[in-house]
Queue: 2 jobs
Job 1
Amino acid sequence: MMTTRGKFTENLQSLNVPRTPGEREVTQEKEHVREYSRAMVVVAHPDDAEFGCSGTVAKWCGEGWEVVYVLCTDGSKGTGDRQLTARDLARIRRQEQLAAAEVLGLKEVVFLGHEDAMLEPTLELRKEITREIRRYRPDILVCTTPQRNLDGGWGVGHPDHLAAGEAALSAVFPTARDHLTFPELLGEGLEPHKVSEVWVMMHPEPDQFVDVTDYICTSAKALAQHTSQIGGKGEKEVGEMMREWRRRRAEGKPMEYAEAFKRIILDRPRP
Ligand SMILES: [Zn+2]
C-alpha cells in the first residue's frame, strides 16, 4: 500500500488473483481497441463499476490490460441498517471493493474518500482525477454519464454519479492534457496525458456493445463481493440478475450478454 497526500492506493497485482476456470482464455475477435492496454474506471461508489462494467473490466484484465479504479466517495451512506455507523460502512465497503478488485484482476484501486451522497464536480475533484489520469495514463477512461436521464427506466439518477461523470470528463479534457492547468502536478512528476477514448456508462443512447458472455461469471462473482449492497442475495442470485441485465443489453446483437457504453473517440482528427 502506498500513501499519497492523504489518498491511498493498493496494489492488487501481488494478490495472485484467482479467476473462474475457463475464463482466462483471450477471445480472438477482432476489435478496434486491440492496440490499447490500459484503462481507468472513475465512479462514485464502491459497486458502481461492478454493476456497470465489470464484464468489460474482467475481459480487459483477462487480456492482460492494466485496469485501475478511481472511487470518488467512501460509500458511507448506502445502508438501511440503523446499527451501522457511516465509518463502519465505509470500512466494510472498502473491503468489499478490494475483494471485487481481486476477483477481476485490477492493477490498483484508488480511494479518493469523499463523503458519500455529497459529491460535487468541484475543481478539487477534477484535480484529483487528473492526478490519477496522469499517473496511470489510461488509453480508455470509463465513467458514468453526467446527464440526468428522466425517462424513468433507472429512476431519477444519483447526484454522485452525475458529479463523478462531470468531474471525470473535465479531467480527461482538457485538464489532463494541459501542462499549465494545475502546474503543481508537474512538480509531482505527473506529465500531461491524452486519453484516447472515453466510454460512458448509463448513457441513454449507447453505441458500443461489449460481448461479455465469457466473463459473466467473473462479473457476477465480483458484484457478489459487495455483500452490504445486494440485499442478502448469494452469488447465484446475483449471477441471474446480472445475466438478465446483460441479456437485455445484447438484444438484437450477435452476442448473448453485453455491456453498453457511449463511445467517444478523442484522438482522431476533426471532421
Ligand atoms: Zn452508485
Job 2
Amino acid sequence: MFQVLNEEGEVVNKEALPDLSDEDLKELMKRMVYTRIFDQRAVSLNRQGRLGFYAPVAGQEASMLGSQYALEQKDWIIPGYRDVPQIVWHGLPLYQAFLFSRGHFHGGQIPEELNVLSPQIIIGAQIVQTAGVALGLKKKGKDSVAITYTGDGGASQGDFYEGMNFAGSFKAPAIFVVQNNQFAISVPAGEQTAAKTIAQKAVAAGIPGVQVDGMDVLAVYAATQEARSRALNGEGPTLLETLCYRYGPHTMAGDDPTRYRTSDLDDEWEKRDPLVRFRKYLESKDLWSEEQENEVVDKAKEEIKAAIKEADDTPKQKVSDLIENMHEVLPPHLKDQLEEYREKESK
Ligand SMILES: Cc1ncc(C[n+]2csc(CCOP(=O)(O)OP(=O)(O)O)c2C)c(N)n1
Ligand SMILES: [Mg+2]
C-alpha cells in the first residue's frame, strides 16, 4: 500500500512527498474540512426530508479530494453517485449539487464549460464511458485526461473489466479510481472477490495498478498525479485502489450499518481519519491552527446555507421540463404530450 503520511501525520515516504506549496497544503485541508461540513449538513437536511438521494462521504475526503486536486480544469471527471465533492471542487455550483440530490433536472444540467458528466447511478457504467471519453481526448489531440470513480462493488461489474481493458488496449488517457470503502452496501470487500487486492486487477488489462492509502491525502494526490503524467505521456491508463471507509450509511435511504459492521471496525478506521492525520502534519509545519479551522467551518456553513436557499428558490420542476430536457429533437408523440402538460400547468 502506497503511503506518504502515517496515522500520526508523520512522513514515512520522503521520496514520494509531493511537491506542494504551503498554500496548496492549506487549500487541501480547507477542502477536506469544508467537505466534512457539507456532508454533515446534507445528512441532516436529508433527515429533515429536505434532500432526496444522498450518499454520505465522511471518511472518503482524502480519496476524493486528493485525486481531484491532482487534476486541471481541462480534465474530465466521470463520477459515481457518491462523488459529488469532486465535481463541486471541479466547479459545479453547490446549489446544483443539492438540486441533483432532489432529483431536479437542473442538478444534472452541468454548465457547458465544466468537464464533468452527471453522476452515474448504474454501477460500473462510468468505466466504459470513461474509456470512451479518454479515447476521444486522445483522438482530438487534447492535452487532458479523464478520471472516473467507482467502489469496491463496482470493481466486480463486467463494465469495469471492459472499460479498463479497452482503455489499456488503446492507451487512452484515463485514470480509474476504485474507492474501496470496505463495503458494497452491506457486502464486505473481502467477499466481493477472491483477489487479494482490487489494484491487482489491472494486471489483466495490461496497465499499472496501485493500492493507495485512501485516508492519506498526500498519497492519493501523488498517485493521481503520477497516473495523470503517464496518461499525458501516451503511456495509457492506471488503476488506483484507494483504501478508505465510509463512516455513515451507504445512502440516506435507510440502510443500518450496525447490522453489517462492528463498532470495533468503525473505531479502527476512525483512527486513520484523513482530517486528523493531515491536521497533525500541517500543525507540525506550523501551517494550521484551530482559528484557521474555525474560519473554514464558518465559511462553509454560510456558503452551504446560501446554496440551499438558492436550491429552494429554484422553480419546482414540471412534467413539461422533464419532457423538454430529455431530447434535443422531440419525437411527435412527446410533442403532443408536451402541449398537453403545458396546458395543464398554465392553469
Ligand atoms: C448495475 C447496478 N446494480 C446494482 C445497483 C444497486 N446498487 C447501488 S449501490 C450498490 C453497491 C455499490 O457498492 P460500491 O461499488 O462498493 O460503492 P459504494 O457505494 O460503497 O461507494 C449497488 C449494488 C446499481 N445501482 N446498479
Ligand atoms: Mg464500497
